[in-house]
Amino acid sequence: MLSIFYQGMLAFNPPQDEIVAELSEIKSKLANVAADSSDAQDLTVRQLELRELQETIDKSFLSKPPAPSAREAGIGPALMGSIWVCAGCTAFFLPLGVGTAIFLEEFKPRNKFLRWLSDMLQLNINNLAGVPSIVYGILGMTVFATMFGLFGSPNEPFFELGTKFKRQYVTEGMQVVFVPVADRDETPTLVDGMTALKSDGSEVKLNIIGDDDDFPEDDATLAVSLFSDSDGGVVAENAWYSFRLPFGRSVLAASMTLMLVILPVVIISTQEALRAVPMSLRQGAQGLGCTPWQTVRNVTLPAAIPGIMTGCILSMSRAIGEAAPILMISGIVAISMGPQHLMDDFSILPLQIYYWAGQPVNDADPFNFQHVAAGAIIVLLLVLFAFNSVAIVLRQIAQKRLS
Amino acid sequence: MKQTLAIFALTIVTCFLTVSTQAQSGLKDLEGTINIDGSSTVAPITIEADAGFRKIAPKVKVPVGVSGTGGGFKRFTKGETDISDASRPIKYKEFESCKANGVSFIEIPVAYDGLTVAVGKSNDFVEQLTVDQLKKIFLADSKDKSFTNAKTWKDIDDSWPATEIKIFSPGTDSGTFDYFKEVVVGKSDASMRADMSVSEDDNVLVQGIAKTEGAIGFFGASYYFANQDKLKGVKIVNPDSGEAVEVSAANIESGVYAPFSRPLFIYVNSKSARRPEVKVFVNYYLDNAPELAAKVKYVGLPKEIGDAAKAHFKTRKVGTHFWEMNNGEPAKREGSLSEVYTVENLLK
Amino acid sequence: MAVADTANQKPAVLQRRQFRSLATTRFREWFILAALACCTAFTLLITVTIVCLLVGQTIQFFSMPETSISDFLFGLTWSPTLGNEKLFGIWPLICGTMWVTVIAMCVALPLGLVTAIYLSEYAPKRLRNVLKPILELLAGIPTVVYGFFALVVITPALQAIGIQVDFYNAVSAGIAVGILCLPTVASLSEDALQAVPRRLREAAYGLGGTKFDVSLKVVVPAALSGIISAFLLAAARAIGETMIVAMAAGALANLTIDPRQQIQTMTGHMASTATGDISNFDVRYYSIYAVALVLFFITLTLTVIGNVVRRRFQEAYD
Which residues lie below 8 Å from residue C237, measured CB to CB, with a gap of 6+? Predict the structure, then answer.
């Protein structure tokens, strides 16, 4: 265990002795060769490369994206992905889980058939808690990610909301210009003199080269020149709440799948929290003429809140560590940025760890992907510690309140 | 004086660097997402390409998944991904599914992965093997007992000791396994023997072969290059020339190390290929394929195939080269990559 | 005007309050109840969807020419890709799963039980308050971490003490799964021990039993059904565990009596097939649904028995 810890600490500050050594070697060599020789040029280029490499290595492990070499690799996008997915998952399981628990605990039916039904539902929930998470992964893949193939593919969705489109063109002068369009399939007709946007928002007038026109020669014109038949490609700008059917391998699909895994656990722990509220409180409220829901809202729920929160936070910590269901849905292990909206692609920490742990290990290398995996594990465990300590504090509050 | 000169040189070099990137600096504004999924064998090259591409177009998002070649194709044939990494050519069913969904693609080889047959360092008798001897080692007994495989090394060559043969093989789903099987089994209806230690992790194969007496196994050449101190590569007798050839980058690239080098591919959705960010990414990938491949210890393609691939992409030649229609029945096209990868062989 | 009149008749304190009509309240009550019922129905929907999905795809699997139900259920070889024939006999996978589960339970049961007895019978309250959260933390550690732990710590440690294990093997994966299940066993058993009525303990002390006698000979037997249910629930978790076995147990479906070899579990097969190179139109791909269905039924049986046993036990002392 200590060795994992030691390896992991290395990931936050990867060794760069070799680079430092090579740099000093280059420096001493540079002093000896003629400054304008081709050797000197090569050396200087290498020096620049190495400095750039050092800069990348020096960036924080927590914000760097994953990279093909262990020293440059970080967990930035995966950490953001984990946070998004966990938050999304919580947003779903909280109402559903607490709602179900209240229904089963506080609205117990008197009718014999209904009581049997409620017993069955309880048994069902207990069973769901025992279903392997990878089975939920299969379910999530079919139901949320591809939606049985009923709604087309994520690239040509059946339904879309909160998305703006623009058509992206690369001009003959290698500049990027955008033309806003109404939907995914619209191809704007290019006319001479039409305005387009640059990425900083400034407007430019396009020069369209028709079949009869001469190819422009000066850089300024080239930068805004397009052939009349260039088709460019659509780029979607999604608001954070954007929505589409099917979900594809998005944050939303992953959140909902994890919700399935966690839901039974949340229901059971919430039921326990509700059960811990003394009967006398409920009876008091009912005696004052409260309806069942008024009793729940004003008396039982407030009394049980710390207990419910404890269960929910422990469930969140389980959600953040689940890898198997997400492996079935997404399997992305290299992505340069964290998710920006609910329909974005993502990677999560446990998946990164899984991938890195399976990478080839060269024993001779003092720093390999095993170290990076260990570093990611430390971060994941720290998150877990934070969750658990909050849960402990809340539990203490709960015990004080109810005793 | 020397120092001023050095600074002067530095400025020149920096200018040179900026000039060369000047043409591409406008691409810094490029936006969009390029969805990639597929083989975990090809993923390292693609991830390496993405790392380089980030410097040219930092705003483009390139999520690379490792759902496996099959999983990657499943999404690709539905049009969910823009590029699919593949450690084997597309299968006919997958190709059909593409057609059914109106997805057309450009097939691009990006590197060679050599296959190494290796034994432990302690094995002092095996130097070279022919394809026939390999069959004796790796094939299962036929049902009518007309063919029985070798149990000990003595069964193959009388001068060799009677140590038991222990076989280590990569995962049966992997492209490495597929390719090996294709070469050794060929068109016959024989199959690989079942009593092999199979592992998805090439490190396990390396450890197993190195530490087990009488062991033999095969895996990607990149692992052999990294573990030459523990393993002995077996020379393979080239069936055409009859010469025993050692595995090396040069021999793989020149094609002498036949038949054990297999190509790795990317499949680009031709509709996505119109999008500027995809176009720029694939062009970057193709321009740098040999260096990228070398970085992750694969072997770059010969220049002719690289150029053919670039031409294919530029002129958007869609379809697969690896299947042909024989009287309405699909048939796998045999032959080396340079023979197969021609415009005439395209099946749309 | 009548409304205003009745309002005027109310005491001054109540006049400021707005009273909703009874109909509104009733509708609100009904509406909320319906919403809560929908939440509950959702859990039922999950089960139905799982069963329908798995059964549907499994039927598709068995409708392929290469497969038959009898081979699947009684075949002793799982080699979809190697050998002369494609064989889909599930027993090697079940054997792999069994090994991991048995080893896990050998670790989790004694350790968990000892922990539970200590926490419930011996530990002072303050220590209990510290130990319980630690158990919870242990339960929350992500399974990939345990997998990594098995790979880089347990396997080398086993090799160091002279047990000849393969790099991938059932033993170290089983031990890691055991550590994973330990908190489940400990906390569920502790609940069971706590629920044993005080009068039983007092009677035993009254007969002159020592603390050890009382906890081992009176409390544990009294809580036995609770402990069994804890064991069954933990076993269900061990059977369904995926990441640890995918990382540390290997990928060779092996009907073996030697756990030092590499094996493949049902979950391991599903994970490696779903992420492997197998074409998704291939019969082998559909095998994951059949395996998932078997897995679902095994865990279902275990949890049902576990819950029934626990319920019996709860009733016994209520």
Answer: A130, C180, C181, C184
